[in-house]
Amino acid sequence: MTRIARLSTPDGPRYAVAVADGGSWTAVRSLFDHTPTGEDLGPEPPVFLAPVEPGQVVGCSHPTGPDGRSRVQGWQKPIGTVAGTGEPVRLNEWSTRVVAEGELALVIGRRASRLGRQDALEHVLGYTVANDVTTVEPAVDAVFFAAKAGASHTPLGPWIETEPGAPDDLEIVVEVDGEAVRRSSTSALPSTVADILVELTRWITLEPGDVVLTGSPSTDATIRAGSGVTVRIAGIGTLGNPVA
User: How do 97-108 and 73-77 pair as beta strands?
Assistant: First the structure.
């Protein structure tokens, strides 16, 4: 059982794991305690919520420094930006250009501080699909606060996959209105998942349930109100959102 989801039920949100045949979901106590509660939440397709309620959402870019080498640049996104698959991405009325950025997201499973490369991935619970929605125009502040902080500007989902294959070689496809407009891979990122965690945890402590967006490997696409945007990551799943 490698897929962990957060589902909407008549009794409120429930964490669940996929039954081995992939046809139904069984409720569990929490994101980290997978003891079954006895509730069978039925077959797919259920209503998926954002698969985690993070305390922190950390975004990354990979700028090139004066020495010609890339580095990991992190920033924090408000947790109010988190949305689930199917929820509308709501654009600000003053935005003249907004892009979707298909990215791999990490969900932290163990407290992470000053990690080394050899054990960094041991602190990851699993992986999910992210859309790091970004306001490009008008010009925004250098620390990305206005660009990244819009409500519903961090869709995540549909679930957390704990064994997606090699996280540094996963294909990412971004579709707008059903047409594939960007195709790349996490292998195109200048930094590995382990490198990202090592650099971020030099400065901050990541707690269980926190989310790290690993950055866009040229997977950006312009979106407008009325569009539908989909991000697919091989080995994980498909995240789809209308744009309002």
Answer: unpaired
pTM of the model: 0.95
Please state, in angstroms and rounded to a whole number, the distance separating the CA atoms of residues 68 and 86. Answer: 40
What pLDDT is recorded for position 207?
Answer: 98
46: Cα separation from own chain's centroid:
20
Give the separation between CA 28 and CA 195, rounded to whole angstroms.
Answer: 32
Kindly state the tokens that stand for 197. 């965690």
pLDDT at 20: 66
